[in-house]
Write a structure and sequence with these properties.
Number of strands: 10
CATH class of the largest domain: Alpha Beta
Largest sheet: 8 strands, mixed
Number of helices: 10
Low-confidence stretches: none
Number of domains: 2
Strand order of the largest sheet: 1-9-7-6-2-4-5-10
Structural class: alpha/beta
Helix content: 40-55%
Strand content: 15-25%
Distance between the termini: 63 Å
CATH superfamily of the largest domain: Endonuclease Chain A
Shape: elongated
Mean pLDDT: 89
CATH architecture of the largest domain: 2-Layer Sandwich
CATH topology of the largest domain: Endonuclease, Chain A
Length: 251
């Protein structure tokens, strides 16, 4: 089997739902060799995208004596991989203001609260600034009360080398005495990252700061990722910043 055909089969197997792959497999099982694919390809029009079908037809013309069973195995295995990935990881777009009736999205505050509420062991929050977010502070306080290790990285004030005058760290020290707070004292740089990671299993990466305007009014975009490697790797990276003392604990 040529690399070209292999790549096309893997792409198709990863792209389509199982029902369409099953139909393609059924068509392939009706022939013995892939260079006979033209016999059944016309019956797949409307089921596979035209470009995918054209590429597959072209690649099959180059194959001599390649058993369709080899190709069926590639299709089934790549489609099974697709199913496993979708099962293990869920990705959701989060959008705050303005909304339309054409596409359904959830707002930043709703998803951030959800990410906080599912935490049972560890929760790491990163933001540039924080103010006017009573609902978030309340949720974080409840997380600490149920035994969650809460860690927060914020931009420090200008007095401590940061670029803001509002002392968001002091806000959390006052409202969340059980939280572990960090800052990053890097000359000329700022904490512009915004994310929340719950138990290394749920990651919410967003453009939104922890402010009332960002939660409800500003145009903000985020991605919530549940399961898979991304939340785990992001949490490991944040922990590594702590372990290497790249970010410093606020005493």
């Amino acid at each position: 089997m040529t690399d070209r055909l292999l790549d096309i089969l893997v792409t198709i197997g990863m792209k389509y739902q199982t029902e369409k792959i099953d139909l393609l497999v059924k068509k392939l099982e009706a022939i013995d060799r892939m260079d006979d694919f033209f016999v059944v390809s016309s019956s797949l029009k409307g089921w596979l995208d035209r470009d995918d079908l054209t590429l597959l037809e072209s690649a099959c013309k180059e194959e001599i004596d390649i058993s369709t069973m080899e190709c069926v195995a590639v299709l089934k295995s790549s489609n099974r991989t697709r199913t496993k990935i979708l099962t293990e990881q869920k990705v959701e777009i989060v959008w705050t203001s303005p909304s339309t009736p054409l596409v359904s999205t959830r707002k930043t505050e709703q998803v951030l609260l959800e990410t906080i509420e599912v935490a049972r062991k560890e929760l790491f929050i990163v933001s540039y600034v924080a103010y006017d977010v009573d609902s978030i502070v309340t949720a974080l306080s409840k997380a600490v009360a149920r035994g969650v290790k809460l860690e927060i990285l914020m931009e420090s004030t200008a007095d401590y080398g940061g670029r803001i005058n509002m002392d968001s760290i002091a806000l959390f020290q006052r409202e969340l005495p059980g939280a572990i707070l960090y800052w990053w004292n890097e000359p000329g740089a700022s904490v512009h990252a915004k994310c929340a990671v719950s138990d290394g299993n749920v990651a919410f990466v967003t453009s939104a700061n922890l402010t009332g305007a960002a939660m409800e009014k500003n145009m903000e975009l985020g991605i919530k990722i549940e399961g898979g490697e991304v939340p785990k790797r992001l949490h490991e990276h944040l922990k590594a910043l702590v372990m290497t003392k790249t970010i410093t604990k606020v005493e």
